[in-house]
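Go through this chain for my students:
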Amino acid sequence: MTKLHVALVLCLCTAVCLVGGCSKKEQQSNKDTTPQPQAKLTIGVSLLTRTHPFYQELEAGLKDAAAANGYELLITAGEFDVARQKDQLQEFIVRKVNAIILAPCDSKSIGTSVKAANDAGIPVFTADIACLAEGVKVVTHVASDNVAGGRLAAQAVARAINGTGKVAIIDHPEVESVIQRVKGFEEEIAKTPGIQIVAKLSGRGVKDQAFRTAEDILQAHPDVTAIFGINDDSALGALAAIEKAGKAGKVMVIGFDAVPEARAAIKAGKIYADVIQKPNEIGRQTIEAVKTYISGGIVLPTVLIPCALFTQQDAN
């Protein structure tokens, strides 16, 4: 092969390489400038229950806000069983969700699962019920202003019994939101010297247990003049016990939530009043907190939604 032939071959090879290189760079350039689809944000949700109207409305608020932002929700509920709820949170951790929204079945016992999520780098948000466990991190808690709601309930009691009489509380002390309600209630009742709290017993937040608790209260304190139920299942259970004891109209009942059955009882004059919440707004604001945090924004540690009082006048 002559020197001329060698030179021609080298030139040809160089040209081929240059064309190939340019083509590769062009492909790479096109690849870099093509928008890539973003992975959908997945949020694990574990509620206290999905059977109660309050949580059904809260869930609707979560779903509406999540849909507006293109988020995927994995919704479960502990149904008052903290062991079951712990399993649900563990499943979220295994699935590596982007965030967890939690309404604890037990505000303290759930702490080990929240800590596990913290260790896995998954941010935790609480809705309606806070986590009271020590040594864990919750980004934001969104709930009703339960202390103020408890005060509203106490004011309703004072009006219902004209500022004098004996009052009982059907409690559920394992749940943080209830602790706050009862705190506000007791602080406000203390401002009326004529009213005495004679009993504070757990009804576990469910109607049948509240019915039995109310029966015990009526038997131990036959002169009780009002019962405060920390939610409407408690209030409706108390109402059933009062009617069974033949004391309808003699023992005033004040509830919390204003679910449809309670509103009907208020309209009929069987329950004096209810503190009303905004569960849909709690759900919406919780998703907004997740959105802000995930995008690097600043979120408040607590977001409180105001309550109001629902009376027979409102029902009519």
About this structure: Confidence is low (pLDDT under 50) at residues 1-37. Residues 3-33 form the longest helix (31 residues). The chain has eleven helices and twelve strands.
